[in-house]
Amino acid sequence: QQQQQQQQQQQQAAPSAGQAAAAALAGGAQVDGMLQDEREVKKQRRKQSNRESARRSRLRKQAECEELSNRVNTLQQKNSELAQELEAMRKKCEELTSENTELQGRLSSSGAAGGDVPDARGVEGDAQAVAARTNRAKAEVAAA
What we know:
The chain has 144 residues and is an all-alpha fold. It has 3 helices and no strands. The protein has helices spanning 2-13, 17-113, 117-143. α2 (17-113) packs antiparallel against α3. It is rod-shaped, with a radius of gyration of 50 Å.
């Protein structure tokens, strides 16, 4: 009986070939499981990194849209101001052209009537001044 007990103890202590193979497979399964866990962790990190990158991209795009919207508003306001300035210059040009025409008419009528020479010279000087202002106004309108 002692011998049998010793043999049983030896068999229990020393694993059989089948048991050794099963243990090796179990160890391999553990290695596979660890590799899969590492892959899963890397996959999760990559997903999180992609989410953060997409979030930053959306924020950049939103900031760019806001900047463009502000620029549009500024340019529309500037355009409105310039349109008002152009209209004012056109009116001034029309006024000066009208005044010039009137002064030239007065000059020609005073010359034909044989009026005072000093008066004619004064009107002529006025007409030249108005003509110069008209030309400057036209140049400003053309430049605008």
